[in-house]
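Justification of computing resources. Each target in the renewal requires a structure prediction run like the one illustrated here; the chain below, 337 residues long, is used simply to show the kind of job we budget for.
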Amino acid sequence: MVMRRHGGPACLAPEALGLLMPLHLLIGSDSRIIGCGPTLRRLFLGRDLLGQAFFEHFAVRRPSGLHDMAALHDRAGVKLYLASPHLPGPGLRGIAVPLAAGQGVLLNLSFGIGVIEAVRDLQLSDADFAATDLAMELLYVVEAKSAVTEELRGLTLRLQGAKTQAEEQALTDTLTGLRNRRALDLALQTAIDGASPFGLMHLDLDFFKAVNDTLGHAAGDHVLRMVAGVLVEETRRSDVVARVGGDEFVILLNGTADPIRLEQIAGRIIQRLSEPIAFGAHRCRIAASVGLTVSTFYTPPVAAIMLEDADRALYAAKHAGRACLRRHAPPSDLARM
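Resulting structure tokens:
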């Protein structure tokens, strides 16, 4: 193939042209393909394009109305948008340059902004691009950015997971797995702010000191864990069960303000905790005293006051003989007494 440059002849072998423009087509004046770049040949999966009519294998989508060599000549130097039924993807971009002496057209093609999809869908490598083409370098940058973004995303998820775990640990009693005092305070204020009625129980274990004194702290820890299990079983997932002291627990029963219903729940807890708890060959005997108050007794409810009233009711239960329940009396009840 002979190309003209500055009025003088310059010969460029097909191999050299393919090295510079792996996606080129040489189209003769009769619109038949007389030369093809190596990447384009590979993409056509062995189809021999040489001698084939260009317009039978390629359609120029833009500019419209370009269907013959005369129109292709007229659009020399204008960006062309092409498609081929043999190539998947978003299509090709190209620019046509007339050959000397009316021999035809040199059409250099590229994937344009669809290069990322083309590399993925057509399994291209750097060998399919000219050495001076920045496409592959751009892809390396994109891949590096994607890798960094994915790594940052993973790091963010790990940090978020660690943060969530740390927050959970900060709200959890390590011995029993129940909520701790801080978690209870947050949940109690949330319940008050939500203006939904709730019950509040303060529970203290009876005879627990005797277990520690006679069988040791290992037995005491075992008993506390068993008590925690009972409290969780006798309440709902929406309730909050917290250990607020050595053998003291507070239960926040969300959405439950009926004193009779709350007393029934407390009664079941008292009954179950009166049953012996096995520790090796020993039987640990404890009981539970419970003080109860209800948010509807207050206008408005105040966390500190409710906790104080539940605590007073708890000590009234202990003075009444232990293993029993006492309910805080609202002002209207006190007025009738």
